[in-house]
Write a structure and sequence with these properties.
275 residues; alpha/beta; Aspartate Aminotransferase, domain 2; Aspartate Aminotransferase, domain 1; 2 domains; 10 helices; 11 strands; 16% strand; globular; binds pyridoxal-5'-phosphate
Length: 275
Amino acid sequence: MLVDSLGATVEYVDATDVDAVDAAVTGETALVWIETPTNPLLRLCDLAAVGEIATAVDATYVVDNTFATPYFQRPLERGADIVVHSTTKYLNGHSDSMGGAVLTDDHSLADAVKHTQSYVLGGTLGPFDSYLTLRGLRTFPLRMDRHETNAGELARYLDGHLSVAHVNYPGLQHHPQHHLAREQMDGFGGIVSFELDATAAETRAVLEALDVFTLAVSLGGTESLVDHPATMSASYLTDTEREAAGISDSLVRLAVGVEHVDDLLTDLDQALENL
Ligand SMILES: *Cc1c(COP(=O)(O)O)cnc(C)c1O
């Protein structure tokens, strides 16, 4: 439990566990905010089940849909009041503009968000970033299909690799929530994470040996990126927090791009030979 800078009391719960959400939500809860699939372990939250819990206490239900995108998942159809996106990622799709979007099908909520954005906080996107995002959107469905087929192929390849201990991808049959993924998503997205049978230093060496994948934190662009959560995107967590979140030193996250899949497979193959 913590109190944020606006004076709101915030409680973090594992939202992949519907019972944990149910136990945390009370009549005092004003807002329930989830992200699915989660970063970086690609676990799922049950959109409709969490929505029912939020709605029962009249809390506003917000879903960060950045990973799945509207191409693969539409939370408003499953009870969300508000959907948020980092347009920096797949929607713009070219790693050259930063922005965000807040979407709702409730007109009074839309007015309230717009008022806060325009008159209170003033965070509006500049004209050139707006242009880049709209231009990127023209190829959005084409890119998403390619991100997904590439990610699926890489996930299956890694799943069969002797140096790989475990692969996290909702499209794999052995993903613990594969059935939920099939139910609430139209596709499994372009992010894959996996654990190597390796130390932190060996893991880092594999990542540095990659040539087509760039070692960088973002995702959603046409070019493939690789992230080492323990030392990069999740390095702000303490060791204990990281362990509790299931982020080991040998965990790797791929943001699979739209390159030819053979170039990606060949690159992974040569880098993994270092183990
Ligand atoms: C990157 C990201 C954000 C933050 O977006 P920025 O555009 O980088 O500010 C929020 N949520 C998710 C799921 C993200 O991947």
